[in-house]
Amino acid sequence: MKFATKVIHAGIEPDASSGAIMTPIFQTSTYVQESPGVHKGFEYARTQNPTRDVLQKQLAALENGNFGVCFSSGLAAADAIAKLFNQGDHIISCNDLYGGTYRIFTKVFGKFGLDFSFVDMTNISNIENAITPKTKLIWIETPTNPMLNIVDIASVCVLAKQHNILVCVDNTFASPYLQTPLDLGADIVVHSATKYLGGHSDVIHGAVIVKDKAIADQLYFIQNACGAVPGPQDCFLILRGIKTLHIRVQRACENAEKIADFLKAHPKVAKVNYPGFEEHHGHQIAKQQMKLFGAMISFSLKEDNVSAANKVLSATKLFSLAESLGGVESLIGHPATMTHASIPLEERQKTGVVDSLIRLSIGIEDADDLIDDLRNALG
């Protein structure tokens, strides 16, 4: 089954009781049992919900995995993955990653004895040098947030397997339409489903997809035991959003290519971070492991200060100043004070998150209108 068919049909059947083509929202907290332990597969809604079950099956199909596990947010999904490990275990992560992930690793799990190293994963030798006998997981973002670096997933997985280390890929920026990390050797894929999977800026959601049943069983246990589950309405909204995933991402990527070219030629722009450029250091790897180059762009200004960035951020009309990404509408943001404010200044600057860096999430509007909006804001 090809992707455009999967998003409509994979894991989804008409409702058996009514024939409803859309999976119903099973808005219930509990289920009636015929006698103790005798039921129709559902006992309590934290543990199972029919709407959530359908979504979990569809997510597994989209990522070419065997098991999907849904959570109340992307960070709840990251939290569950971190709980697979024990005090003293070591995790290697990208040094350029979402600020919320950095925060939960260092401020939450660091207190409970997990050890983290943050390295530049565009050079695989940095990962190899960071491996210790206690390393249990390599956490990849690619493309990275917000610098749009590209990590060679297949090469990292080969290295990890040599040391019996698991690999997790945050696939939020790419979506399964552009990239399927499990096919490249990864063990775990995580999404903030809030973003491209939902696609309409109206739901908070997270998901983990794996092939291995033993890992899945641990995640289902954590899902139930810790209770960070999404409601059925949230699951319904993600199911609805997925149906147009391929069309939305395709259009957004086409827009991003045009906008990146515009920004690259603008006299007030110092640098554009976009893996679609041939001179981008990760271009060839992105070309191999992604279908398209994504719809995220970041750029810095020649006048490198917060004031210059704020002038642009406050002057757009179609780009909305807001956190998040992956919706049908275009968003503009300032990583240093918004999405990555939780990362210390010196760490941010090492990765290139300078004061004038601006991040764009390109939507599905007309590209010419978006370019005009940026032209006016920069002018």
Brief write-up:
The protein is of the alpha/beta class and 379 residues long.
Global outline:
globular
Q: Secondary-structure element order, as H and E? A: HHEHEHEHEHEEEHHHEHEHEEHEH
Q: CATH first level of the largest domain: which class? A: Alpha Beta
- Count, helices: 13
The largest sheet has its strands arranged as 1-7-6-5-4-2-3
Radius of gyration: 21 Å
Q: What does the main sheet amount to? A: 7 strands, mixed
Poorly predicted runs of 5 or more residues: none
Report on the architecture of this protein.
The termini are far apart. α2 runs parallel beside α8 (232-242), α3 (74-82) crosses α4 (99-109) and α9 (245-265) runs parallel beside α13. The mean pLDDT is 96. 36% of the residues lie in helices and 15% in strands. It has a seven-stranded mixed β-sheet, sandwiched between helices. It folds into two domains: 3-242, Type I PLP-dependent aspartate aminotransferase-like (Major domain) (Aspartate Aminotransferase, domain 2, 3-Layer(aba) Sandwich), CATH 3.40.640.10; 245-378, Aspartate Aminotransferase, domain 1 (Alpha-Beta Complex), CATH 3.90.1150.10. The protein has helices at residues 3-9, 50-62, 74-82, 99-109, 124-130, 153-162, 213-226, 232-242, 245-265, 283-289, 306-313, 345-351, 367-378; strands at 67-71, 90-94, 115-119, 135-141, 166-170, 188-192, 206-210, 269-273, 296-301, 320-321, 331-333, 358-361. α6 links the parallel β4 (135-141) and β5. The protein contains 13 helices and twelve strands. By secondary structure, the protein is α/β, with parallel strands linked by helices. It is globular and about 75 Å long.
